[in-house]
Amino acid sequence: CNHRRAGIEALSFEAAIAAETQRPQRFHYVEEGLYASRLLHYLDLFGEDSVAVFFTEDLRHDPAALCRRLFSFLHVDTSAHIDVSTIHNQASVPRWPGLKLLYRSIVSGDRLSHRIARRVAESSVGRAARWTARRSMRTRRIPPMLEETRQQLVDRYRKDVRELERLTRRD
Prior knowledge:
By secondary structure, the protein is mainly α. Helix content is 60%, strand content 2%. The chain has 10 helices and 2 strands, in the order ααααααβαααβα. It has a two-stranded antiparallel ribbon. Helix 4 packs parallel to helix 10, helix 7 packs across helix 8 and helix 8 packs across helix 9. The chain is extended.
């Protein structure tokens, strides 16, 4: 989703995961979701007492409790108040992918017009305009995954999920 939001990924989800073995590592979405071997590596290197695992669902369900558990793990003041009322970095995809690419080319190009656009974009007025443009070019309406794709991913991740459950002692 981050690559789609940034305008880097042009393929649909299904096409991207079907082609990932023929693409550079940064486009290996399914492989990047295999966490058990990565976690096992950290546990082997640092030991169970030095590694904490936190789940996104806990962050969504009770972010304050997750912060307290994190603070406890880090041995810092667990009573510190953290404002968890704002959700940051919500998933979104480009509303108009072509416009997103045009915008990126103007802001990051090297021709004179691009350099001028970049200077305007770097000013406080430009930052406000850029923020507005980015917000207007995104939508939170992410297309649903095809059921066939979901089942393929469930099958592909099954062994990894079981190993994660064993390592984290959590379903």
